[in-house]
Amino acid sequence: MPGSNSCATWQMRSWNVSVTDSAPLVKATGIDVSLGGRTILDRVDLSVSRGQVVTLIGPNGAGKTTLVRVMLGLLKPDAGRVERMRGITIGYMPQKLQVPENLPLTVQRFLRLACDREAAACEQVIEELGIAHLLRQPMQNLSGGEHQRVLLARALLREPDLLVLDEPVQGVDVTGQSELYALIGRIRDKYHCGVLMISHDLHLVMATTDDVLCLNGHVCCSGHPESVSRHPAYLELFGSKVADNLAVYTHHHDHDHDIHGNIIEKPEHDHG
Amino acid sequence: MDDFLLRALAAGIGVALVAAPLGVFVVWRRMAYFGDTLAHSALLGVALGFLLGISLNVAVVSISLLIALMLLALQNRKQLATDTLLGILAHSALSVGLVVMAFQQDVRVDLMGYLFGDILAVTIPDLLWVWGGGVLVLMLLAIIWQQLLAITVHEELAQVEGVPVLRTRLLFMLMIAMVIAVSMKIVGVLLITSMMIIPAAAARRFSSTPEQMAVVAAVIGMVAVGLGLAGSWFQDTPAGPSIVVSAALLFLAVQLVPSRR
Fold first, then answer.
1. Residue A264 maps to a domain
2. How many CB atoms sit inside 10 A of residue A89's CB?
């Protein structure tokens, strides 16, 4: 919804001055994108620095994926500029990846498409994500949660400076979702990379993310997750119902589950 | 065995060897109709080759690439679905080719030969074209195999990971165009796509890696060439179509094998 930029001025805290080193890994300024006459992004600013987790939230059609594609250089914005630090490696986890049914591809082979790193380095990532038992499986046989962890593994195998995750928990059940977010947080701590991710649920990512950008064509509000969750623009966008659900979701936060362990997967493949 | 039969076998095996590994990508990338379109436009290449007095192989490759680029440009306008665009391009190119040929009354063209192939009339230079072009295409394919596989799995992910997507796609189109050009005289423009697709489709059930599928497809293609030529020799059936019939029968036979999974 273009127009009504009043809430954009309501920034409680500038999101690009958080716990970070030096210059941003990627920085976008004044991004405008319109597709087919419809404004998708309206003067959006965003930057991600090393060690920082930035989460984009917003309703369907808010331009989250479009913004990510602009940041990755896959889409040229109509106006504005994107600066990426020279020589950085980006690990990308796309929203939808469906291997053609008639292409025989095991998980192992899929991971090797990312790079031909020596076995030891690969094993570490595979161990970390708990996918060792899946390596010989065809990609088409994976459940939703397994699929997402394999995609994340492929992004990590590149030893990225910047990790870009487009809805990393889709098709994963609620227990698995908080596990996956916890894992992303650990990855950031361990590899000290920047993380830019899209999520549909602020409260699930709250523990993981440093900064939140609430997007609806323009930047509605941004800042620390706690402050965004109380922000009038956020409440207006998502309604108070979402705020009421807070209790349910924080309940899941409080539990500590093992990533390798009993994640109950949904039986159906849900790539949607 | 007669010389012409040996030449036919050598040419057919050459075509099968190169068409199959490209064919698996055509199948994975859902480009069957695209291959067909390039094949149809090859006839326009033949007509223009005669008109301009240049090598037919060069003319066919050039026209195929031109059609491929036109398709890319039209696709970017996003006004019509790709299959509609392919239908327009395929049949317009074929018809323009036939019209251009009709204007050249001093040139006598064996139209049926180009449409359905004339494998029993293969000459030594034809054989050199098939094997020379085939080896070149296979070498190129081996070089870009990994990149082509990466963009087949997910184009944008591959691009972020540093794969030159556009270059790889163009090279793939170039390779298809080259295969069509060199195998036109063997199986004909109307049947060449079947040599890419049918062995690849038949190979799926026996493969657990992409490379395995390419190799199995090549073997199935070669068996189909052998069977088709045998049928043609003993029953006097048209050679090109007999090869395709054999490939189709092999595909059907494979479907009857119980699944391992």
1. no
2. 15
pTM for this prediction: 0.83
Alpha-carbon distance A254 to A174, whole Å? 13
- Taking an 8 Å cut-off on Cβ atoms, the answer to whether A100 and B28 are in contact is yes
Domain CATH number, residue A190 = 3.40.50.300
Q: Map out the domains of chain B as residue ranges.
A: 3-192
How is A4-20 classified by DSSP, letter by letter?
Answer: -GGGGGG-SS-TTSSS-
Cα–Cα dist A198/A59, whole Å: 11
β-partners of residue A195 are: A53, A163
User: Which fold would CATH assign to domain B3-192?
Assistant: ABC transporter involved in vitamin B12 uptake, BtuC (1.10.3470)
Predicted ipTM of the assembly: 0.85
Per-residue pLDDT of chain A (272 residues; tens, 9 = 90+): 443 433 333 333 334 444 445 689 999 999 999 988 888 999 999 999 999 999 998 888 888 999 999 999 999 999 999 999 988 999 999 988 999 999 999 999 999 888 666 666 778 888 888 899 999 999 999 998 899 999 999 999 888 999 999 999 888 888 888 888 888 988 888 888 999 999 877 777 887 888 888 888 888 888 887 777 778 777 777 765 555 544 333 433 334 444 554 544 444 444 43
Shortest alpha-carbon distance between residue B214 and chain A (Å): 11
Per the DSSP assignment, residues forming a β-bridge with A198 are A56, A166
Q: Are the beta carbons of B45 and B158 closer than 8 angstroms?
A: no
Q: Do A103 and B210 touch (CB under 8 A)?
A: yes
Check: CB of residue A92 under 8 Å from CB of residue A161.
no
CB atoms within 10 A of CB A215: 25
Residue in A92, A102, A106 nearest the CB of B157: A92
Sheet containing strand A194-198, strands side by side: A90-93, A162-166, A194-198, A53-57, A211-216, A218-223
Same domain for A31 and A146, yes or no, is: no
